[in-house]
Design brief:
By secondary structure, this protein is α/β, with parallel strands linked by helices. It is built from 18 helices and 13 strands. Bound molecules: uridine-5'-diphosphate-xylopyranose (UDX).
Length: 433
Amino acid sequence: MKVAVIGTGYVGLVTGTLLAEIGHDVTCIDIDEMKIELLKTGIPTIYEPGLEQLLKNNLEKQKLSFTTNHATAFQNVELVFMAVGTPQGENGQANLSYIEQAAKDIAQTIDHDVTVVIKSTVPPGTNDYVEQQILKNLIHPVKIHVVSNPEFLREGHAIEDAFHGDRIVIGSEQREAGDLVESLFAPLQIPIVRTDRRSAEMIKYAANAFLAVKISYMNEIANLCDAIGADVTAVADGMGMDKRIGRAFLNAGIGYGGSCFPKDTEAVVHLAKQQAMQLSIVESAIKTNKAQRHRFVEKVLRHFDGNLTNKKIAILGLAFKPNTDDMREAPSVTIIDELQKNGAIIHVFDPIVTNEYSAASLYDCVTKADAVLLVTEWQDFLHADWTEIGKLVKGKVIFDGRNALEADKLQQLGWTYIGVGRERKRVYGFQES
Ligand code: UDX
């Protein structure tokens, strides 16, 4: 099928590349000319494992093209995907200005019947609204149907998720339009959930808010584990073996960041408020998440008896999670800021992201450090030579903000290991269990 994708951010670029790879003819549109020029040459504008190769292959096969021109992109297309950003606006509300602009562009350009598919995360009712807006502003008398198809990909695993997702959600008010979208994805053989548009939109918010709640719940349990002397990783393993709970997303640490959970939890809380309702569980999850970063800094402060003046702190990881260059809502930003306010001297290293405090290598970063903080659990850090690092640092103390390092091994190497919710292990040692 011939498809156009509006927006070349994470969602748009991955969607466009995926659709090309499974045999469709795809044109991606963006207003950013620089981005489009880079993409035309096969250079991805985001860091995403596996993307570059797929991009290059499909450009070569001429299954994928990029343009800033809507008329070019819409020529003979059967489907137009909207994959533009819906950033957090005032009061936590989703900002729909890019969606509105995309709706205008479609209405003013399209000259044949088309199905519009909204991939962007949008509040329930937006698909209805977009359909009305396009119909209202149409220049040519054509038929338009809007279908909701929310995206569930995780950054850093976007390609894997796109090809092997758990489900594809299709929300439509008109059977044929939903069928068309279903047939587009058929080669993927991923289970399909067919529903109405508002339910499809709600599935995305409900899923993200639930996952955020799961993380914040575990972070609260971790804080209690610290207080009573238990190990939250053992607690998570024990809980996770219950199939009704599942082990995924039970990892305590410094809380969630990124482009989705922070924004979508705020948006769903706002949505409830508009209905004079309160989502108190989600509100609490947001509060707990914000507090978790401060708690981590407090741990560092406590270790140094409240005085970080001129202490060199080596921060490992800037990105909000591994395998991405995304810094949106990254806990590292708040943590660095608070440490600096307390007089610490910051050195950082991230395999992909750099800032003004970046050292040339992990080993440069930790040299003469009074403490090392693991903020993003990149594999490079987990498999680093901790014996060597131990020789370079001034103080052999590691604060593991992700509970991702091998605590027992580090202790054997003479490190003081401080995780999140692992106080029992710190006091009694890791070796004995
Ligand atoms: C998330 C959803 O997983 C995805 O389905 C949706 O489309 C977009 O939002 P993403 O933000 O890319 O994806 O990353 P994800 O891997 O889900 O992690 C989100 C955040 O939660 C990260 O900051 C991560 O560090 C944190 N997290 C995750 C935890 O703190 N503990 C966990 O157990 C899992």
